[in-house]
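Inputs:
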Amino acid sequence: MREYKVVVLGSGGVGKSALTVQFVTGTFIEKYDPTIEDFYRKEIEVDSSPSVLEILDTAGTEQFASMRDLYIKNGQGFILVYSLVNQQSFQDIKPMRDQIIRVKRYEKVPVILVGNKVDLESEREVSSSEGQALAEEWGCPFMETSAKSKTMVDELFAEIVRQMDYAAQPDKDDPSPVKTLTQHVWNCQLHG
Amino acid sequence: AYHSTRLPSCDHPTSKLRLTQELLIVGSLSAGSTKTWDKGRSSKNPNPLSSMRLMSHLAGAPGVEPEYVMQLVNDVRWFADVLLNLKEAFRCKESLEDLQAVVQERLADLLHVLKAVIGKHQTLNSVDILGAAGTVIAKVKGIDFKEVNPENTKAIFGEIHISIDTLAFTFGNVVSDFLMGDVDSSSGFGTPQTRRSRVRRCLSFPIRLSFAGSPGLEVPLSREEEVDLTLLKNDSGVESALLYAKAWSKYIKDLLAWMEKRLAMDIEYARNYAKMAESAKTLACQQDYMPFSDIYISTFKNDAEYRQLLIQTAMALQTNKFMQPLLARKNELDKLRKDIKEQWQRQQKKMQEADASLRKAQALKAQRREEYQKAHSSTNRSQEEQSNLANKQMEKKRRLEEEALQKAEEAQDQYQICVADADMRKMDLANAKSTILTQIREMVFQCDLTLKAVTVNWFQMQQAQIVSLPAHYLAHSESAKLYEPGECYAEFVRNLPNNLPRDNMHCSSDNTSTHSSHGNLSQASITSCDVLSGDDVDNPPHRPPKISEQRSNSSTDIQALKSQTSLRAWASGSQGSHGGMCSDSESVGGSSESRSMDSPIASPGDFKRRLPRTPSTGTMSSADDLDEREPPSPSDNGLAEMVTETASSPGPFRNAQMSKAAQTHKLRKLRAPSKCRECDSLVVFHGAECGECSLACHKKCLETLAIQCGHKKLQGRLHLFGIDFAQAAKNSPDSIPFIVKKCTSEIESRALNIKGIYRVNGAKSRVEKLCQAFENGKDLVELSEMSPHDISNVLKLYLRQLPEPLILYRYYNDLIGLAKECQSAIVEEADKPQSTPAGEKAAPGVHLNRVIFKIRDFLQQLPTANYRTLRFLIAHLNRVTEQAEENKMTASNLGIIFGPTLIKPRQTDAEVSLSSLVDYPYQALMVELLVRHFKTVFDTSLLSSSDLTTPGQASPRLTPLEKIQRLSRYSTSLMDIKESAKVYKRYSSVIPSSHILDEVQEVQPGTDRAEVSALEGLNVIQRSSGGEFQKAAPVLEGPSSTSVAPKVQLRTQRTRHVSRPVSMPLERLPTPPQTERNNRYAASSVDTNSSVLDPVSETIQETPETEKARQSMSSRVSTYYITPFIDTQTLQRRTWDRKYKHYDVTPRTAMIVANLPSASSGIHTVFPNNSYTVSSPKLPLTLRQPRTLQPPPGTFYKPPSSTSSRPRTLPNWTTSVTTITTTNSTSLLSPTKPAEIVTQSLVITRPQQTRLQTQDSTDSAIDPGVPTSSTISPPESPPPSSPEDLSPSEIKPVYQRLRSRQLQELEQREAHFV
């Protein structure tokens, strides 16, 4: 069974946990608890073949930034989340992608830019066009989701899987040895 | 053509001719062409051609039908002829008889003609003509021809001539009038009136001339008419007029430009003056008893009003009084000019065309005529030559001739037409010209009118403005003359109260000049403030509290003066200026006050003296206008600053956007390149510098500057982040770095309800800037404009970047262990049915409480500064959680956030990820516990007052009721002896190191050794059971495994508590709870006294109680006793207690211990060596006591030679404090020994202690003892080694106890503890 390792990144309070939990359990959690690190596994079907999606829900608050390098190293695909009712979170996300590229030493990492909390349209601070523009700059898909209203959540994870598939194709630069190695390290980290 | 035929021939051809001419002229005038008139006038001897032309012109007279005019002219001629005939008749030298007949005949003719003419032209039917005619008739009829003889011919005929002339003249007038057009009759002559009058005058002039010299009355032409006339004459009249108009326009434009500039300047000027006057007035009003103050105030007021008036006037002038109308006029003029030009040009073009065609026609005509002539002559010739020639030729020739004639005629006609056309054109042109000229003239007239009006207005307004000034000044000068020098000063002095010797003293000196008194008063306040503030200048961190003190002092003093706010301002201002005191954000007002100090307002005349006082002379730079009329101008810069207080400083930064902090600075232009305090880059251009604190920054950075002015030189950039915490704490009086305090206070003040505070990140750039600001400006940073998330980030950043976290590395493992304990405790309690449903806050479970107390005691090991800061921070976070409803930041959330920040393991990079990941939850849990159980963990009453945010000084943490409750709660669970045994281990685990244990072993004789060994054995046992043992020996031992043995710790803490009550009663004046406790203890001691066993059993019973997490209770008790009546005492106790807080000693057990008579013996045994009394290893033994048996009575009892021992011990203490401390520490170790005897002795000692306590309450000698001993111990020793702290605190209690036997006993006991 194929395993996809996805890391959900973003600054504090944007809704990473909510998104992940919404996808995995189908419920929306209201609680406002800063995550340290949460890990979820969900079986999905990709192209009518069963796969496992391993989602690492990370801490957004700054003091855990030192941990990021580690799980960036281990992650395959990245969901960069910002809250579209918080301009600051949108600004904070840019250096995160730089960090990903720096750690991976590779530009074409499967990444999706996500603007969450689209249900709070009235409080919007980041326009769709801004997000779209940034996604274009990065060369990655862009979505606006809402964990609360379940908007685009499933599509989001489907898309990241697709992106990982696409990136993992043999003609791409991603050499499989590295991949298996990261996988190995990932497993060690989580289960060690 | 008919002209030539009509030329009259007469005897007096000249007269006739002239008459005809005149008539002709009249006729020509009817055509209305000035040109023709001019021509007519100018030519005295008109050649036929001109006459012809005149006549031809006549034909094209506009407005009146040409035929009619011609008819009229004909009739006029006819009449003229007849009249002339009549006149000639009288002139003729004929026989008189004939004369009469002729005359009569001619007269009849005349009348006939006249009738006909009048009949035809009704308009000529005027009274004048008839009258004149009547005169002529009469005169002629009246001639008595019989009388006529050559002599009187002339006379008689002269009259007749005259009358005839009159008639002619009248007739001519009437005709000309008619021709010119009456007012009634419609006429196309444009401006008839003027024209007519003009023409009439023109007409009258030659007529008069011709009619034999009746002197031409020169009617003075009006100016306009003259102008128009001249221009009409002038060929280029229109052009000249236009030129003039253009010149006028330009002139007005220049005028307007000047006016505009002048007005603008006036307004600005007036505004500035008004502002200055206003501010000066405001400030002048504040000062009482100043000479001329009311005069000056009124001057300022007037000036302000005057300037306002000026402004108004100028504005009015700008608008509707001057500029606008004039401008409008000018525009009109320009437009008209343009129109007229076009029009004129058009006319001229037409004229030229007509002229051209005329010429062409003329030429044609001439040509045709010539042809005709030729044909005619040829015909004639041929006719002559060949009289009998064939008719054909003749006919042909004749035909030719006829043709030629026809053609000639045609040409002639055409020519006529052209001529007529040209004439028309000419007339058009002339009309147009005159119209234009009129228009121009009128326009110019209008413009002049406007200009006149506005000019007059302006001057009137000016006059109105200034009119009031002289009187005002005069009045003021008069009243100023009346003032007696020194009057005001005297008045001021009179109003002083008598109870301020200081001020009075200073004020006494110079009375003569108000100015110097002014200076003296300020001097007085300065010196007074200097006295108070002298010692503070050197100690910046202490400034804030003391300044407020000072200011209040001086202000109360000055208030007592019951006079002038000015003085108050001076004093505080002088403080500000001298001490640079106003550094806090609270004292921004003070800074402004200092301005007032520096720029006194109404001192007359001596501005130069004022200037040096101002610290930043830069603001009073160039425009020091010492104009007498505006006295406050030099100070106005500063005044304006102060008065507005929100306005930016004058000079270069008037328009700069400034943050609140930036406004507190006195900014001036940066002179030398320096580093910008806001953005940390170099600033060379557009820089601002504060004159007081020499803070430099970019002009742009003023908007975001966060550093306020501290009114003294700003420190260089500190290193704040990443600096060792101990260092940072040193700079602060309460060991809490200012950055922590500032950030937390700011957040508490306004951000407690912000969702996600501390979780959400702030803007990175802003956060960085704020960090920089803190480094540059230290505690002067103004935070009120910062986003709370930024501030929270800075705080977190600071804590994260400490080289060693607040909880030092060496405590990491233990703390994590404690956290794990907690976790299990929580899990336990969660499983239990009776777990508190209300949540952990309400009533933490027993186990949890135990752990919490452990944590508390553990934390006490932290360095003071760390502990205090931690406590401060946790208190703040606790307050944040109080608003968790709004901000969603519960204790657990905050724990997650702050966990890794506060609790970090020492790690190399390799370890980072793994251990962090694993430990994060525990770190979070720990912090969560700290926050949630803040009150429990950080016993606020344990600490000195200055540290406390809450006033925990007076009352103990628990009321007696609470204590009882706790007691009852804990009494349910029993601890078995095994557990009690474990306490030893716990105790040992708390004790620093094993080598101290050895020392203890050395010290203790005999039984103690056994105890020690037993203890050691237990140690070993325990070691196997759990690393908690080792873990609990944190300080000197290395980090150990993280396994937890809760019970061990429990024991340890309990044993610690045992010791406490021993010391406490002696040092404390009994508080009611204490007394109560004392009573209780006394009661129990009584009980114990009654029977030996009972106390033992009681103790046994007690032990379980104490075994339980009674450490909480006892800690309560201990805190109970530690009401800091004397701060030093508290400190002593605290430091002492901190080391011993894990001794679970309840007062009850203590009492019981003390009451045991066997204790004394135990004590005896214990104190063989005085040198070791203090360092008695019996201490641990005492802890054991409650659990098992009573200790030997003399265990902790000092022998009766205590009095001698006291001096012995004293020197020991004083001289060898260090040794004592080490021995103290060893005694700490000793509690690990599970010697029953020891515990018994402890039990024994307790009651004794309490007894002593009661005694002590009466003994006032205790108290003096305390301070003396306290002086021995430094209250706040930096990173304390626990032993060291023990000794000073130990000394104190021990000292006291030596007073009496019981005291001695207690002392011994204390010493054991030590």
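The two ends of chain B are 159 Å apart (CA to CA). Flag for discussion at group meeting.
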